[in-house]
Write a structure and sequence with these properties.
Elements (H helix, E strand, L loop, with lengths): L2 H23 L6 E2 L2 E2 L11 E3 L6 E3 L7 E6 L6 H12 L1 H6 L2 E7 L3 H11 L5 E3 L4 H5 L3 E2 L2 E2 L2 E5 L5 E5 L7 H13 L1
Parallel strand pairs: 5-6, 6-7
Antiparallel strand pairs: 1-2, 3-4, 5-10, 8-9, 10-11
Amino acid sequence: MTLSFVRRCIYRLALSVLLVGVLILGPSLPAQALGGEQVPLGEPAPAFTLPTNVGDGEISLKDYLGQWVVLYFYPKDFTPGCTLEAQRFQRDLPEFIERKTQVIGVSADDVDSHAEFCDSEGLKFPLLADTDGAVSRAYGSWMKPMSMRHTYLIDPDGTMRERFLGVRPAIHSQEVLARLDELQA
């Protein structure tokens, strides 16, 4: 058996245990997910400053006070699921802008990889380089060596309002828009 095969088996087992727990315990589950403890809804979102491939080279959460933020974590640039998810956010970007909402992607890839990914896919929203996983860990979205596919909605005051842990890349952007509409109503 190879080490990568063993890792895949452990990952699948952990995911299965998590899913069974969700089915059995439902809403009584603690704010825990594969990737770590989750920030409670209604609490301030963890502050961060990370390098990016756009603008002045760094972005902080505080830069977006006064508007909604979709902060989505993803495993790796140029992989099929991550590419599809990014494409869907780009496709729906005008709808997010209409709702005064900034889309921001975060992964452990470096700034150069993000720049190539944005150029390749025509992405017009920032991608942040969390190369050491510190911000991903703060949000409960880290499984070394990569970020988990989790998304967080942060309100204009910097408060955590929603989290998406079972993300399906093909429909995720539309799910986020629907929930954003509910929260903004």
